[in-house]
Design brief:
145 residues, mainly beta, six-stranded antiparallel β-sheet, 1 helix
């Protein structure tokens, strides 16, 4: 992985074996970025996709493997009052299953790069978006304090 900051934006190139979410969170910690948005594309080998099931208040997880074209990655980073970072990430992947072209998408737990990923990380300028815990869903939402 390598990255470079131009203006307020951080451009990240990830390489084979890099885990995308961990790399983004690592850069945020290193650069002291407490809230940001990000987007990207790339070629991946494995993705853990989650779907929230409100009737059971749980996430169902599916792992997909193979040549996964990361068509779209979008997400955000926020922090709680104790400077812990949290991500909320969604992605769309295209892949082949035999002769069929398929698409899988959803909330992302992890993504492993197979050959490269290119990510644009845009820190929030002039403030910090905090995380407000929601006990009903067991997750957090944006809080502007």
């Amino acid at each position: 992985m390598d990255y470079k900051k131009y203006g307020d934006t951080v451009y990240i190139r990830m390489d084979r074996g890099d885990e995308i979410i961990g790399c983004i969170l690592g850069i945020c910690k290193k650069e002291r970025i407490m809230s940001a948005t990000f987007s990207g594309i790339g070629g991946c080998g494995e993705a853990q996709i989650q779907t929230y099931l409100p009737e059971t208040n749980t996430f169902e997880m599916q792992t997909i493997c193979g040549m996964l074209e990361l068509v779209s990655l979008t997400g955000n980073i926020i922090s709680d009052g104790y400077k812990e970072l949290y991500h909320h990430t969604h992605a769309v992947f295209s892949y082949k299953d035999g002769n069929r072209h398929c698409v899988a998408a959803g909330h992302i737990k992890s993504i492993t790069v197979s050959y490269t990923a290119e990510i644009e990380l845009r820190p929030v300028v002039g403030g910090i978006i905090h995380r407000k815990f929601d006990p009903e869903t067991g997750t957090g939402f944006w809080s502007f304090c």
